[in-house]
Here is the input.
Amino acid sequence: MHQIIINGIISGCIYSLIAIGFAIIYRTVKFFHFAHGVVYAAGAYLAYTFFILLNISPLISFFLSVIIAGLLGIAINRFVYFSLRKHNTPNLVYLLASFGVFIFLQNLLQLIFGAQILTLRTGPVKEGHHVLGAVITDTQILIIISSLVLFFLCWLFIKKTKFGKAIRAVSDDSIGARVVGINPEKIIMIAFAIGSALAGAAGILISLETNIEPTMGLNVILKGIIASIVGGIGSIPGALFGGIFLGLAENLGIWKIQAGWKDTIAFAILIIFLLIRPSGIMGVKTEKEKI
Amino acid sequence: MEYLIHIFIIAGIYIILTLSLNLIVGYTGLAALGHIAFACVGAYTSSLLALNFGISPWIGLIIGAILASILGAIVTYPSLRLKGDYLALATLGLGVIVYSIAKNWVGLTRGPMGLPGIPAFKLFGYEMNNVWAYLVLVLIFVFITFIAIKNITNSPFGRILRGIREDEIASQAMGKNVNKYKLIVFVIGAFFAGIAGSLYAHYISFIDPSSFTVMESITVLLMVVFGGMGSLAGSFVGASALIILPEFLRFLGMPSSVAAPLRQMIYGLLLVILMIWRPQGLMGKYKFK
Amino acid sequence: MTMLQAQSLYKEFDGIKAVDDLSFVVEDNSIVALVGPNGSGKTTVFNIVSGFLKPEKGKMILDAKDITSLSPFKIACLGIGRTFQDIRLFPQISVLDNVMLGLKFETGDRFQSALFQTKRMKKEENESVKKAEELLQFVGLLDKGDALAENLSHGQRKLLELARILALKPKIFLLDEPIAGLFPETKRTMFGLIRKLKESGKTILFIEHDLHSVMDIAEKIIVLDHGKKIAEGTPEEIKKNKEVLKAYLGKESL
Here is the structure.
């Protein structure tokens, strides 16, 4: 049982990192940036390139990869979404464009690195520590601690810096924000930078544990969106909570049934929340669109 | 030559999928991202009926299509009040769930091992495993689908669908039961997708969950969007182009480890370019506003 | 005879009282104006009447039937035809089709009729075209029948909205700012059409924020401020009402 909780927390940390990044971006652009998932995959592949292929030290590899992931997010925003924002485009168009970016980049990764499974692991798998009846490896401890550090940094950024406040301003009222001198485009860019960096970081962290493959992004972004919705779409603490909740729920669920049903559990949770409480657990209930 | 006919058959099956999705997305403006789930239901239903109970593929086809439309109704009914993005997510979720069931309910579907040896259609005792015969069969179904959807859209009913696409709230203010229309449109779309699935299964004679992934749904959506939302001719063009043109990549002599991702990259790029410069696709007249 | 009755409506948004204990009556075959400064809750009232918003408290009665909990399309079918403040036409659909979408088909708009292209559907379609053309004639837009709604001028759009709800054959017309943004000539046309409707026995409730312009046409005026009714009466009575003067002081002149 304790093993399940640990597994759940690890999955949860990854989902939360994705969901938080997704939520930050969603707050500023108000549509589902699906391509977020492929930025996650790109982070992992970048780390592989630097650490495994180029033999650069792990810490520098990590930072380089995270920064480039952030830049990738900025590029996607600048070349695709920015062009769409010029007209009055409906959300479906943004969604489809986001899918297009996702498919393009995922297959680019496959073209460059091949479809086979890669890994960031260099040595044999070390035995884990026995804690409270469960086994937890050094890697897993590293993942959890890194995630916590990143959560804390995020919280600092959103709550304490002026950029964080600006993101909240733009999300509530982008015209009003402009009036007080905030440039929405700049804030959107920063949101993409931070969110994508988080996604890249998540991709690297999970690759310490499991495999890297080109399709790793799809599943994770769907889970990240589910976590965001469960926690309250656009709410950053909600994303954190939603991610952990989803990770735990999935692992508890497959305790009794086959492992392959993980995705079904996640989506069943999504459907339930969409029908009963679409604003999520920490979201604010909004009235229907203005008529 | 036989390979060429094979390509046409596959294109025909995708045309049916595209036409049926176009009704939902193109004409009515609903963000349906999990359409291949209905084809999956159709395919597995008629295959399992044929393999386990010896039921004729003709009957299996109909039952599969009916089951697919029932699924369409069950799924749509609670999702009707979901706003655009959320409906997209819910339909995506449907796609994932159906795929998961196909992959994990090994007792029913044999999971990733798939169902081999699916019997072909029989006409007066003559088994249709000749590609030419199958081409004619598929073309007949393409024709039926086309006529059905053309009639549906070229009518007062179709006008109401377009009204829903333009403005749901105004449609309600005009006394239209918008939810009822959305439900009907999903059921019809699912029905024809189910037919496409069965046609595929009895042609290839082997199906497994990998033919019914989320990416497949997006590919069909790309065909709708590329050809033109709300344009029936566009669906023919979109589906055919996206099936036939990538075949030319083969002639460039690339290994499949390059051709496969390259093909998808072209799809992705095409989708982005369309959305930025021509969201109404090649032949669509409805401009997103 | 009362056509429409609101009983103690209460509607709240995020803690703000949009409509507070509002009751009013609209008599059959009358022209009633709902006025008030911007933000006084007029469109919210319309949204509640037409079913797009549900009040936390209170009831809405149409022709002696309680419609409070009904869905908007049902309410439209029962006889409320409303226009929208921002004009909700179907932009990429032709003017004629816009009007035809208001018409009720007996069975011709069913999916089966479409699939099998029944004779009945075709017959009803032909009749509908004629009816729609008559309505376009009434508002003066017959020559624009094939144009796309989005290509019409602002004034023409307002007239099209009116034609569209005429197609509904409603018991009561709810017009949200029918003369907003119109040139004086088109304003006169619009009011002229409203009078013609009244002469043919219809009931009209319309929203207007400029109190002055409704004095000549309204038989009764209901004045709202901050979601509450502050006055209800004939134009004469309203002119002398101190509360109304207070509410409008600094906002619009009488």
Observations:
- Chain A touches chain B through 48 residues (CB under 8 Å).
- The longest strand of chain A covers residues 129-131.
